[in-house]
């Protein structure tokens, strides 16, 4: 992930400081401006504004204000200190847990984040504390019947980097498949090459064309699929369209961060020098 812009100590308020130019046609809400600068998420920006850590043209910002390109936006260093305390966690999600809020009687994956399930071989110097669970949310889905790498973070910058509308981060999966309605053991040998090409590019979901994907056989029953998007149950729905049934799905990489040897049901912190 690219290094965010440097925080600057906000100047003292000046008499007659110019207000934000909300009338400008190219003005945007302040929380969007801060997010576009790469400093934080919009939700975090609202928190900073409420705490008085953001100034516009030297004056304390107010919630909902709009700013234009000519307006000077500065952030107090307290915001940087608060953000440094936010954690990002990598979990090897087992089957049977949902990524987000509890649903249909199934527990959310965040219940697995505790001191007992912290991987012993985690090299991070960060120590678990209950406050790290506040605002901890998944940055991307992993279906209830899928396993593998799930990112949970308190840092809105990382969430936006991974699942923002313009995100191009790769997600890599190992997918066990079978021919739909068949008992053949060597799926690879019987699967038409033209359908494999369709998996790579040419399918549509929800009326929209999918981005090109990297798809290759790892063995007779397993595909390696790399996506740069994350529609709901995307891989399963892609496979259905070409006559394949998914019988197992495991995410092993997001960007440059890999699942590695992290045991099922355990978690570790994103390393200080790791970047997606």
**Overall pLDDT score:** 88
Look up the CATH topology of the domain at 85-167 and 256-269.
Alpha-Beta Plaits
The coarse silhouette is globular
Radius of gyration, CA atoms, in whole angstroms: 22 Å
Name the poorly predicted regions.
Answer: 1-6, 9-18
**CATH homologous superfamily heading of the domain at 85-167 and 256-269:** Pseudouridine synthase I, catalytic domain, N-terminal subdomain
Number of strands: 16
Beta-strand fraction estimate: 15-25%
Distance between the termini: 6 Å
SSE pattern: EHHEEEEHEEEHEHHEEEEHEEE
Sheet/helix structural class: alpha+beta
Query: What is the CATH top level name of the domain at 85-167 and 256-269?
Result: Alpha Beta
Contiguous helical run count? 7
Helical residue percent band: 10-25%
Main sheet overview: 9 strands, mixed
The CATH architecture category of the domain at 85-167 and 256-269 equals 2-Layer Sandwich
Region (Disordered): 1-24
Domain RNA-binding S4: 28-86
GO molecular function: 23S rRNA pseudouridine(2604) synthase activity; RNA binding
Enzyme class: isomerase
